Amino acid sequence: MGSSLGEAIDALRKGRFVLLHDGKEREDEVDMLIPAQFVTPRSIATMRRDAGGLICLALGYNIASRLGLLYMHDLLNIALNGRLRDIISTCSPYGDRPAFSITINHKDTYTGVTDRDRALTISSMARVAESVLNGGDGVAEFITSFRSPGHVPLLIAANNLLKERRGHTEMAIYMAEKAGLLPVVAICEMLDSTTYTALSFEKANKYADEHGLCILDASTLMAE
User: Which domain holds residue 158?
Assistant: First the structure.
């Protein structure tokens, strides 16, 4: 049951969804992921309809750092005073520091939440990342192209990826880099509308079979 890493890498290169389970010792969730450079409004509709979780955009640490992005818990530490700081979460129930940064919309969006709007925001971030990697002024492009707050949460991968943190964010960026793609990946948790919990690996595997998608468990990546 499940696909090989090579099969998943090949699927990502073709702009196809890959399903990724992070393990029972962690969130025990399966996320749908797709490289940002291939995202279309149909991609967003599929994640919204078939996954149902929060559609986020994972960024490689170097991209986020060169854009001057900070983790949300660090931003809140700067912004909040007194007792309000008690609300800041720096560690999840499963032991990880949250990867969340700011939320954004592309400046050409209207509400920012429609499938077309979120696809524009996500695919445009891929172009900014490409500019940064190619030595362009990604900061200026980022500032002139986006506004915050918005409807696409940004996630910052740990600098050392799986050696430092083993979340969906790091695994998604790790796989994108292995595929030779931009380190910018849209991810969304798969939820179960029957049990009102995360979709089980077994049900996600059935979905993958029905739709011809690759599905991986984190143990496949850790074995690399």
Answer: 37-190
Catalytic residue status for 21: no
189 among known catalytic residues: yes
Q: Is residue 203 part of a domain?
A: no
Predicted confidence (pLDDT) per residue in 160-197, tens digit: 877 878 889 999 999 999 999 999 999 999 999 999 99
Establish if 12 belongs to a structural domain: no
Q: Is residue 98 part of a domain?
A: yes
Q: Is the pTM of this model over 0.90?
A: yes
Q: How far apart are CA 180 and CA 89, in angstroms?
A: 34
Q: Which of 31, 115, 117, 170 is catalytic?
A: 31
Which entry of 22, 29, 170, 189 is annotated as an active-site residue? 189
Q: What is the CATH number of the domain that holds 112?
A: 3.90.870.10
